[in-house]
Amino acid sequence: MALSIADVYGAFPSQDDCLEHLERVRWPKSPACPYCRSSRSSPLPKQRRHHCNACNTTFSVTVGTIFHHTHMPLQKWFLAVALVLNAKKGLSSRQMGRDLGVHRNTAWRILMQIRHAMIQQEQRELLQGVVEMDETFRRRQAASNS
Predict the structure, then answer these.
(1) Alpha-carbon distance 41 to 134, whole Å?
(2) What 8-state DSSP symbol labels residue 141?
(3) Given Cys at both, which of 40, 60, 98, 101 links 53, Cβ 3.0 to 4.6 Å?
(4) How far apart are CA 142 and CA 129, in angstroms?
(5) Can you say whether the dihedral through the CA atoms of 61, 66, 67, 69 is positive or negative?
(6) Sign of the torsion formed by the C-alpha atoms of 57, 72, 14 and 78
């Protein structure tokens, strides 16, 4: 069941809440460097970044995601994802722009990023169990059976 806009706004009232959620989902055990996949990293003080001791780079939880290199607050991104998931007949960039208070070109880019993330192979494993689409549902088998 998709979250309502009010649920998303209530669950993620700040940028830090969004980042904490992404860290829990992406790194359930410990942070992993998106560049070299090493788990040997240390947090940087007073920043939401980590330093990889293997490849000597710094990274945040948004590296390699649709949220990387964005200037828009993550709350708006999370609301955009909720809007896409809750739209029964699709969502235009103009409507999303009005709903989020951004220019239609920005909304178009957000929509394209969300749609691209939905077709990526590594994201498909998230669609297991009961998947609801267009008021219907079916049980999706594990990735090895599809």
Answers:
(1) 42
(2) P
(3) 40
(4) 8
(5) positive
(6) negative
**DSSP for residue 4:** P
Q: How far apart are CA 2 and CA 99, in angstroms?
A: 18
DSSP 84-133: HHH-TT---HHHHHHHHTS-HHHHHHHHHHHHHHHH-HHHHTTS-EEEEE
Round to whole Å and give the CA distance between 126 and 128.
Answer: 6
Q: Tens of pLDDT along the chain (146 residues)?
A: 567 888 888 999 999 999 999 999 889 999 999 999 999 999 998 888 999 999 999 999 999 888 999 889 999 999 999 999 888 888 999 999 999 999 999 999 999 998 888 887 665 555 455 555 555 444 554 544 44
- Calculate the CA 115 to chain-centre distance: 11
> What is the sign, positive or negative, of the torsion defined by CA atoms of 28, 30, 31, 32?
negative
